[in-house]
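User: Last request for today: this protein with MV4, please.
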Amino acid sequence: MIQKILIANRAEIAVRVIRTCRAMGIASVAVYSDADRASLHVRLADECVWIGPAAAAESYLNIERILEAAGAVGADAIHPGYGFLSENAAFAEACEKAGVKFIGPSAAAMRLMGSKTRARRAMREAGVPVVPGTTEPLANAAEAAATAAKIGYPVMLKAAGGGGGKGMRLVASADALGSAFEQARGEARQAFGNPDIYIEKAIRNPRHIEVQVMADEHGNVIHLGERECSLQRRHQKVLEEAPAPLVAEHPRLRAEITRAAVDAAKAAGYTNAGTVEFLADAKGHFYFLEMNTRLQVEHPVTEMITGLDLVREQIRVASGERLSVAQEDVRMRGHAIECRVYAEDPENEFLPSPGRITSLAEPSGPGVRVDSGAYEGWAVPIEYDPLIAKLIVWDETRAGAIGRLRSALREYTVGGIHTTLGFFREVVEDEDFCAGRIDTGFIGRWRQRRAKPDRSREQRIAVLAAGFHYLTSGREEGPAPRRDKSEWGISGRDALLR
Ligand code: MV4
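Assistant: Here's the final one, the structure of the complex with MV4:
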């Protein structure tokens, strides 16, 4: 059994992994960069090791430094979290070579899923529905045009070297294809060091539905239900829930999509935790998109409806043990929703809003969970992803969960920086959201609907000045400056919104 785990990550996910280590009696080791000396994960871990400067390339992405740290403290396993090195097959290999267990799938499975075209080929062969399109990189724009003519416009050009929407182009007609192809190539080369592009038919108003899978080294592959993740901005998820509301409309969908996900994992020889992403249309048809070979940010909604600890299962599997549950023992109950609390300014194009958190009140209570890397007095660094916490709620029904989310959002205050909390306070009042009408166009439509003439610079300054006065008047809570109730995040200081 694993006795000491080094967490090759930071902030809320490092804290999340440390908590399970503690519950399992496993020693935890934090690593940190210059920018994270005061981070919560460093305070909570049993040991910590400095690994380099703030720049991720020299710290959290530095394979050599991380393996050195593991050697220095005698860690027998590494949990990569999400982002950073979590989907880096060379890192998984380097861990095994150094005699440290990588808590994740094999390097071979990571490589297969890392190549989006290879993955599409393997999935098609396994009988998993894939979006119509190519399974080999396109040789040139002429081949792209010939394929597009065959499958029909609109089409999507996508990078073979990596997912998440980078290098992606929606092309409506033949005349736009040539330049879109060159742009996509350039972006793909930039982002992934690989200019290869493939083509897919564009699915209109798709929903992003993904399935959590877990597999052990004894051939057991199970699914833990689906999640709905269609609320995204710039290909960044902002709110996720389980189960997917679409499944209520299409009762066969759950059985079909989870079966496809298990088939996908089996075909890939997959072990540990993974997520199979699909696009689904309003009719309940679904198509394989890609597989993420890591624990995802949104795993807590699955934990809330299944009662399982996914990090615990990951550690068991990495230790060579069996999954603690068989498929028939997995019970899904109720509904869970996660809101990603980003240090971003919703009022200003969701631009990052780093800085010191001057006051913090996190909600709690039955059915309320906060996975947080934040504390009062902590300065959110500019160098990394601005996700500072996740608010997760559970209740027996979706309506109940939304009710709990409303109350929790009312309690949740972050002072000193801008966050997405004000944005969520509006989402939970939105008619479409409450009715489960969420597809990938939701945020765009929502922003358009409530768009108002931009307030003048003078007005902004007046509001900021009022806010500044409030923050420096020495009162933690108190009457906020008067503001239009429908304007979230006006000053961005969440404490001022109430
Ligand atoms: C698509 C698509 C429509 N058709 N593929 C893939 C990565 C993800 N971040 C965006 N992706 C999409 N791929 C085809 N063939 C539409 C999207 C898409 C999207 C998907 C899910 C959730 C939000 C989205 C926002 C824009 C585009």
